[in-house]
TrEMBL record:
The keyword 4Fe-4S does not apply. GO terms for biological process: cell division; cell wall organization; peptidoglycan biosynthetic process; regulation of cell shape. Keywords: Cell cycle, Cell division, Cell shape, Cell wall biogenesis/degradation, Cytoplasm, FAD, Flavoprotein, NADP, Oxidoreductase, Peptidoglycan synthesis. NCBIfam families: murB, PRK13905.1. It comes from Candidatus Wildermuthbacteria bacterium RIFCSPHIGHO2_02_FULL_47_17. The lineage of its organism: Bacteria, Candidatus Wildermuthiibacteriota. It catalyses: UDP-N-acetyl-alpha-D-muramate + NADP(+) = UDP-N-acetyl-3-O-(1-carboxyvinyl)-alpha-D-glucosamine + NADPH + H(+). InterPro entries: FAD-bd_PCMH (IPR016166), FAD-bd_PCMH-like_sf (IPR036318), FAD-bd_PCMH_sub1 (IPR016167), FAD-bd_PCMH_sub2 (IPR016169), MurB (IPR003170), MurB_C (IPR011601), MurB_C_sf (IPR036635), Oxid_FAD_bind_N (IPR006094). This is UDP-N-acetylenolpyruvoylglucosamine reductase. Pathway: Cell wall biogenesis; peptidoglycan biosynthesis. The active site is at R173, S223 (proton donor), E315.
Length: 321
């Protein structure tokens, strides 16, 4: 990092800049040390300016949405955290144009009340649109990529680029944005006119299922591990889990079922604990350090590998480690 950067110089370029902001207050896990610099980008122009400034000054940066699916180090982040809050959207016919910082749940509600189908699978999904696109979030047989028409992003050279769905290279819980570190600015989605009451009912049902199955009464980051691709599991392990195999969007063994079968429900490290309600969640029981969570993750991986020959892959993103 360029040590000659001064707060005053950065604040002139980015009005509203803050220093030493606790990132625990900006993540759903309620874990994480301070950001050296913190900037809330309320418009797409703010996002572009902040990232271009960080690049020019050789200042490490990290783009933050609503802080779900994220584990921040106890040391925090020694650079600039850009919190994306650009949240404008408009709907024309069956097309949705939305900025990356808008809550995905808002879009599920707004499209549903207009009788537009395509996002109802995401009822109750936490996080921003940008985060969902970046990780190709999915649930209940649907994936974010299914509705994508195009994405506007900032590439590694800080150029604004437009990509169609094919160019986004979506895969299971991943995309070109995740792999290359490109920053999503806005998204265009192609939806379909449908039965308003049916669409809203599906979204409500999925929201209710999330509430029933997930330990939402505790701070958490959402799913810690990706579901296991059935093809990558040993044949004997496939037989063990044959009754819980589901399509997501290809045949998988749910990570929660694997962790439960390994006898790891309620396993605890300090104040971090595997949820009894949903074993693919780690819950924060009090004042948790990120080290407790990383130790717990490592232990789960080790036990699952030993018992079933499966290598669990993390879905959670680590920052500042």
């Amino acid at each position: 990092m360029n040590k000659k950067i001064s707060r005053g110089r950065l604040a002139k370029i980015l009005p509203g800049l803050k220093t030493n902001v606790s990132l625990a207050q900006h993540t759903t896990f309620r874990i994480g040390g301070p950001a050296k610099y913190f900037f809330a980008a309320k418009t797409t122009s703010d996002v572009i300016k902040a990232i271009r400034t960080a690049k020019k000054l050789k200042l490490p940066f990290f783009v933050l949405g609503q802080g779900s699916n994220l584990l921040v180090s106890d040391k925090g982040f020694n650079g600039l955290v850009v919190k994306i809050q650009n949240s404008k959207f408009k709907i024309q016919n069956s097309r949705l144009y939305a900025e990356a910082g808008i809550s995905f749940s808002v879009l599920v509600y707004e499209t549903g009340k207009r009788g537009l189908a395509g996002l109802e699978w995401a009822g109750g999904l936490p996080g921003t649109l940008g985060g969902a696109v970046r990780g190709n979030a999915g649930a209940f047989g649907g994936e974010t990529k299914d509705a994508i028409a195009s994405v506007k992003a900032l590439d590694k050279n800080c150029r604004v680029i437009n990509l169609n769905r094919g160019q986004c290279r979506f895969s299971y819980r991943s995309s070109i944005f995740k792999k290359r570190g490109w920053i999503i600015l806005s998204v265009t989605m192609a939806l379909q006119q449908g039965d308003k009451k049916k669409i809203q009912a599906i979204a409500r049902e999925h929201m209710q299922q999330r509430r029933q199955r997930s330990p939402l009464e505790y701070p958490n980051a959402g799913s810690i591990f990706k579901n296991c691709d059935l093809r990558r599991a040993p044949k004997q392990t496939q037989k063990i889990f044959q009754e819980v195999i589901k399509t997501d969007p290809f045949p998988v063994i749910p990570a929660a079922a694997i962790i439960a079968a390994a006898g790891l429900k309620e396993l605890r490290m300090g104040q971090a604990q595997i949820s009894e309600k949903h074993p693919n969640f780690i819950i924060n029981l009090g004042v948790v350090g990120a080290k407790d969570v990383t130790r717990l993750i490592s232990l789960v991986k080790k036990r699952v590998k030993e018992k079933f020959g499966i290598t669990l892959q993390e879905e959670i993103q680590r920052v500042g480690f």
